[in-house]
Amino acid sequence: MTAATHQPVSGQPATGRTDAGPGRRSGRQGVTAVLRSEWVKFAGMRATWLLLGASALLTVGLGLAAALALVHQVRQGEEVSTDTFRELPAMGLNFAHLFVGALAVLLVTVEWSSGSIRTTLGALDRRGPLLLAKAVVVSVTAGLVSLVSAVAVHLLSLPIVRPVDPALRFADAGSLFHIGGTVLFTGLVALIALGIGFLLRSTAGGIVTVVALLIVLPTVMALMPWDPVNELGRFLPLNAGNGLLTLSPPPGSLSHLVCLVTLLGWAGVAVALGAARLTRTDI
């Protein structure tokens, strides 16, 4: 009757339910706990609110600047459609997405750079819920910030635009469609960047890749004098997202459905690649 009779043989892993501490619960409780933990990390990062704030300021600031410029064009005798005014929230969106992408990458890579990922993964039975929780936190939060920013652009630009375009309404179908597309586009960009973060596990490499994918590659492909390259460029995230937000697409453009499927495909592939590295490789 000694304490040794209650201990596992040296070198053999402990088994049974008694080894599952509070951090190793499975099922819904486990996923909920991981989600709560990831939100605490996300909200506690100083970069979170700096980058989200910069994203909102860019969206609102460039949207209002574009409203003033378009109103000036109308007063100079140029024709500007009502749909163009409805699309004001998208005027600064491409730049705002750089901050969203950087935030999504940081949410992942900061744990690898600090070494805290070992503690995080050590408290989990499976690694999948970690990626799921980070994806929900960053995409939903980025989408909500985008929603607030887009609504702010519409509301603040109405007094500027209405004197030259009385047909513009905040709650008309076109405006609501554009706002919804803005939120969806932003959430999917966050997922693409998150997948890249999990795949590369490097802050610098992840952010450079996001910038290259969202800004550099579309610009380079558009400048190349080769039609097949230009055609492929239409399926990049930036161009697909802009196509989704264009209320009156020109003839020959990708349909809204094709643009949406393209964005979903990019997000799905990025997250799948990140998940594969997370679950199949060591820390």
Quick structural overview:
The chain is mainly alpha-helical. It has eleven helices and no strands.
Descriptive overview:
It is a single chain. The chain has 283 residues and is an all-alpha fold. The protein has helices at 28-44, 46-75, 82-86, 93-114, 117-122, 128-161, 173-200, 203-223, 227-233, 237-245, 256-280. It is globular.
Query: What structural class is derived from the secondary structure elements?
Result: mainly alpha
Number of helices: 11
Tell me the number of strands. Answer: 0
Task: Please write the string of helix (H) and strand (E) elements.
Answer: HHHHHHHHHHH
Topology:
Elements: H1 28-44, H2 46-75, H3 82-86, H4 93-114, H5 117-122, H6 128-161, H7 173-200, H8 203-223, H9 227-233, H10 237-245, H11 256-280
What are its keywords?
single chain, 283 residues, mainly alpha, 11 helices, 72% helix
